[in-house]
Amino acid sequence: MTPTDDQLDATSRALLRKVDDLRETEKRKRETARSSREFHGLAERAEAISREVFATAQAERVEGREDSPIPAERDEQYPGDWTDEAERR
């Protein structure tokens, strides 16, 4: 089923949260001793988050192939129209 604008927006926001988590994990890793147990744990976490980012980005691309099943949402056709409602909340 084709996602609504809200569903696509939720996927996009999840992607941004994962990117933020990856950035924070990488910052923490850079502050640890190379080859330490903590370094390797953070490196594994960064790798896992990277895989999640990739999977979420793929899902977003697939979800965005077709327009919303809701007629009113299909009528909105300008860049970023699918994020408008969520930003007003």
What would you say this structure looks like, in words?
- This protein is mainly α and 89 residues long.
- The chain has one domain.
- The chain contains 4 helices and no strands.
- It has helices spanning 5-30, 37-63, 71-75, 84-88.
- Helix 1 packs antiparallel against helix 2.
- It is elongated and about 55 Å long.
Name a few traits of the molecule.
single chain
Enumerate how many helices there are, as a single number: 4
Radius of gyration: 17 Å
Largest sheet: none
Helix content bin: over 70%
> How many distinct domains?
1
Q: Structural class of the secondary structure composition?
A: mainly alpha
Question: What's the shape?
Answer: elongated
Order of helices and strands: HHHH
Uncertain segments: none
Cα separation of the termini: 25 Å
What is the mean pLDDT?
87
**Number of DSSP-assigned strands:** 0
Classify the beta-strand content into a percent band.
under 5%
Write the layout of secondary structure elements.
Blueprint: H1 5-30, H2 37-63, H3 71-75, H4 84-88
